Amino acid sequence: MQAKPRPAATPEQALSAMDHLIATHLVGQHEIAQQVGMNVTDLTCFAYVMEAGENLLTAGDLAARVHVTTGAVTGILNRLERAGYITRRPDPTDRRRIRVAARPGAVARVLEVYEPYYARLTELFADYSPAEIAVLNDWFTRASTLAATYLEEHCRPD
Fold it and tell me: Does residue 49 contact residue 88 with C-beta atoms inside 8 Å?
């Protein structure tokens, strides 16, 4: 596919567009969390558990990714377990730790809500050439790393 002409944009315009996307995404996450009976933090944790698949995360892994204390993540896991979203399994190498697994039915419920949105995003990606998608992927990956590093440096949980 040949790249389509794109309107010129300044870094400031791109930052503004990114801010609008993030704001809309935050509102959407809140709405989706309500649809599946969770709060946004619990949904975010569950998304990390889903993403991990068979490489089960520990409670400490989740606490670090969501920037909450280990005590707070215990409460999150308690809610997710009571609601039927996750199970806890002993770590095979360290019985003091637990690993978190998503329940297949819960994954299906959450994906049912997200799949129409992801289908629209996939259609949007079809408007871009493979080279442009590579740039988008590179930018999202690097921006995510930058954001995580910034959070580590400036927003540590107490």
Answer: no
